[in-house]
Amino acid sequence: MKRLARILFTLLALAIAASSSAAPFDSRAFETAQAVGKPVLLEVHADWCPTCAKQRPVIAELLSRPDLKEYQVFTIDFDSQKALLKRFGVQRQSTLIVYKGRQEAGRSTGETDKQKIAALLEKAL
User: Domain range holding 16?
Assistant: First the structure.
């Protein structure tokens, strides 16, 4: 029964993550997305960050492309999730990290150029 509950929780977490452009970081959903081979984007965001504000619409537009629609996106709050910053080796807000399965495929910090962000996202396909 516990196993069934875990499976249902994981499926629910993936459905929630897939239904929005970005979901707050959740370790279980992140690890599940990696395990099933989904491309994953970690978006380190701060509400006060002008670069982050510029990245958001670019990322949303890119993720509407058919070839990028499978992305699972998780947001890490730069101000309140310091343990996750340490876990992923992040020093600044506006950092984007992409994973292909369990492997980090690329990262950038402070990038707002649409073509460069698209190139980063394409690394995990």
Answer: 2-122
